[in-house]
Amino acid sequence: MKELKLMKGNEALAEAAIRSGCDAYFGYPITPQSEVLEYLSLEAEKRTGMTVLQAESEVASINMVYGAAGTGKRAMTSSSSPGISLMQEGISYIACAELPCLIANVMRGGPGLGTIQPSQGDYFQAVKGGGHGDYRMIVLAPSTVQEMVDFVRLGFDLAFKWRNPVMILADGALGQMMEKVELFEQQPRKTNIEPWATVGKPKDRERNFITSLHIQPDKMENINLHLQKKYNEITKEEIRFASSGCEDAEIILTGFGLVARICQKAAQLARAKGIKVGVFRPKTLFPFPYAEIEKLASNPKLKGILDVEMNAGQMVEDVRLAVNGKTRVEFHGRMGGIVPSPEEVLAKIEEKFVGELV
Amino acid sequence: MAKVKGDIFIDIEKCKGCELCKVACPQSSLELSRKINSKGYHYIVKIEDNCTGCTNCALVCPEGIIKVYRKTLNKKEPVATITNVTNDITVTVQQ
Amino acid sequence: MNEKTMLGENIAETADTQEVICCPENLVYEKPDTLLDTPMHYCPGCGHAVTHKLIAEVIHEMDIQSETIGIAPVGCAVFAYNYLNIDMQEAAHGRASAVATGVKRVFPEKFVFSYQGDGDLAAIGTAETIHTCNRGENILIIFINNAIYGMTGGQMAPTTLPGMKSTTSPFGRDVATMGNPLMITNLVASLPGVYYATRVAVNSPSNVRKAKKAIAKGFEYQKLKKGLCFVEVVSNCPSNWKMTPIQANKWLEENMFPYYPLGDLKVPNDKEK
Alpha-carbon distance C183 to C190, whole Å? Predict the structure, then answer.
């Protein structure tokens, strides 16, 4: 029997964490995602006995995640843009030590203290690596509260499959809005001990140690080569995206997360006026669906691509890389926490491309 | 108190010549050797044979490379031992 | 095990043909197997190495090698996990007590300790230290205070003494501009979450014995879930103090001990074990 519920994004994410059999959540209050910690503080202990701890800072939170993840348990944290900035060093350590964990970023307008309104201004930080060194997180971009739920479970699976940090890159609106969600059944908490985990050295194995320190350069290079090889395999296997109406489209809108839904509406409005518009939405921002976008861009009937984001233009660079000059790529962005409207996107389509269509 | 005799074994390859054992030794029986180990450190050697096995040197040694041995000598030895009582009695007297 | 030394030359051996004392039944001390044979990188005479040995001895004697997880800091002891034969994690600079919290919270039955220097624990990691202690996290924090940043080459630390020279206080620590040494152990001792806080040293045989007892207590109290145990080891740094190990230990007694007096700062009131 399906379990349906009307839930706020942040609380749905927290509920999904409990149901995914998460073992530990370490977090710190920051608008617009404090509800994750609040919900877990209320629900988690009594339901699965998972650890829920409010740390003294996001720096402490990510390092607590490091510790718990190092024992092979399912560990996670969540925060919003400024807090995620504080976590960057810890994330770099986690990536190098190859620890599986989940980090949710419910983005808010920046830079600086910025605003608490939604934004997508942390794309570069999340996808290109906001911390030091060459590393990547698997980045999942939910566009519905349902995906906020599904990506938690998927995130933990990918984290352990690849021994890599996974980020859920949502935004303040997704965190705060309520939608109907279908909840998956309760998964068991982790009981098997990972061979690499630090749980106390039994007689029958060498000691395990978790480190990101490799002082000899040749050894450090090998670590990096290993990581890059892993990221290539992740790219081969884990690309996810959604597209609609792109087969006959003259214009394709690209966008991720919440904005992709706005593009969906804009496409509807455009089709009502006879303009064939499709929408392409990457679900994974790393690994990015370059090949798929390139394929779409090579369609001779296509007039161009309009990338829409809530930032000054970040994913658009990857779209341009994918398109590689095969078609025109235009951009429309809103910042400061302003959410673009479908009509606004439609107007931009007409402004940029109408001359060519008629 | 029964007389005690100690001795130590130093893994001189790992000694860094810090001399902390030398100052900790109540019997001053340790000294840096004029020779050096493969790392280039003068290592510690026992120069006196008056070690009592008190373990001071091993306690302060940062490298944990000193093994300490201790034997209590001159235990109350039997004054006489009677052996082979059946056929003939031989008595040996201990000094 | 052939008792002869590797180089075969040990003056005592050649002294005379007296009875061999060095044989297994006479063994009264050797390093425990929880301390690996890997030669430690510490400078000659460094207190870090002695403290590693004591931790290894306590873990060996309490037979908790399979139950203990250690957290190494960033600092001279960054390679601690190469020397201690237990499961360990390397924490980011200053964050060892948070990492330890993460481990302890998901494995409450395990013994968890964080091993940190003065820069790690009392400068960049102050917030983590204060809050881990204030939560009364049921872990042991071993804090090596040698009043200097060792690994990075001798800079001033929060615990550098007034007037004490370092590469970043070349004319001596100026209290007017850089404040007084941070008495972090006194700070944490005042927090209810801290059950046992003490200051020890490893510069003499008797101090080594006391230090080992303190570390053992730290693990025992952890087993009894008494809360945070905090052991400060007032230690030396021959290289960066620019002294020989013997001089450094003398300077330690004459300058560090008056500022960081050894002894318990907080002991359980109900007469525990």
Answer: 11
Distance between CA atoms of residues A61 and A50, nearest Å: 16
Give residues with Cβ within 8 angstroms of C92, minimum separation 6. Answer: A63, A66, A89, A90, A93, C74, C99
Closest-CA residue to C262 (of C233, C226, C219) = C233
CATH number belonging to the domain at A242-353, selected among 3.90.230.10, 3.40.50.920, 3.40.50.620, 3.40.30.10? 3.40.50.920
- C45, C48, C209 member nearest B20 (Cβ): C45
DSSP C193: T
Q: What are the residue ranges spanned by the domains of chain A?
A: 3-237, 242-353
CA nearest A149: which of A22, A12, A40, A297? A12
Domains, chain C, with CATH or none: 46-266 (3.40.50.970)
User: Looking at the domain covering A3-237, what would its CATH class be?
Assistant: alpha beta
Rounded to whole angstroms, the Cα distance separating A282 from A151 reads: 13
The tokens describing C68, both together, are 């203990």
The predicted-structure confidence for A232-254, as pLDDT tens digits, reads as follows 999 999 999 999 999 999 999 99
The DSSP bridge partners found for residue C155 are C149
Give every CB contact of residue C38 below 8 A, 6+ residues apart in sequence.
Answer: C82, C83
Measured distance CA(A139)–CA(C54) in Å, rounded = 45
Q: How far is residue A51's CA from residue A27's CA, in Å, rounded to a whole number? A: 11
Q: What is the CA angle C227-C228-C233, rounded to 5?
A: 150
B30 at interface of C, judged by CB pairs closer than 8 A: no
Q: Cβ contacts (< 8 Å) between C203 and chain B: which residues?
A: 60
Give the pTM.
0.93
pLDDT 10s digits, A71-123: 999 999 999 999 999 999 999 999 999 999 999 999 999 999 999 999 999 99
User: If DSSP states are collapsed to H, E and C, what string results for A198-260?
Assistant: CCCCCCCCCCCEECCCCCCHHHHHHHHHHHHHHHHHHHHHCCCEEEECCCCCCEEEECCCHHH
Inspect the interface and report whether the beta carbons of B9 and C11 lie closer than 8 Å: no
**In this structure, are residues C141 and C129 in contact, taking their beta carbons and an 8 Å threshold?**
yes
Q: List all chains that touch chain B, counting a touch as 3 or more CB pairs closer than 8 Å.
A: C
A175 and A10 Cβ atoms separated by less than 8 Å = yes
Looking up tokens 């020989």 gives C244
Task: Identify the CA nearest to A15 among candidates A173, A160, A126, A179.
Answer: A179
Closest by Cβ to C65, choosing from A56, A90, A201: A201
Q: How far is CA C60 from the centre of its chain?
A: 17
Cβ-nearest to B45 among C11, C29, C53: C11
List beta partners, residue A104: A78, A168
Residue with tokens 């007296």: C18
- The residue with tokens 């509920």 is A15
Q: Of A152, A129, A93, A89, which Cα lies nearest the Cα of A285?
A: A129
Residue with tokens 């053992």: C216
Q: Which two tokens stand for residue A109?
A: 């307008």
What's the average pLDDT block by block, 10 residues per block, for chain C (273 residues)?
43 55 93 96 98 98 98 97 98 98 98 98 98 98 98 97 97 97 98 98 98 98 97 98 98 98 91 52
The ipTM, to two decimals, is 0.92
Please, which residues have CB within 8 angstroms of residue B87's CB and are 6 or more apart in sequence? none
Which residues, 6 or more positions from C265, have their beta carbon under 8 angstroms from its beta carbon?
Answer: C185, C186, C189, C197, C198, C199
**Residue to test with chain C: of B69, B70, B73, B75, most C Cβ within 10 A:** B69
| Distance in Å, alpha carbon of A298 to nearest chain C alpha carbon | 47
Give the span between the Cα atoms of C244 and C223, in whole angstroms: 39
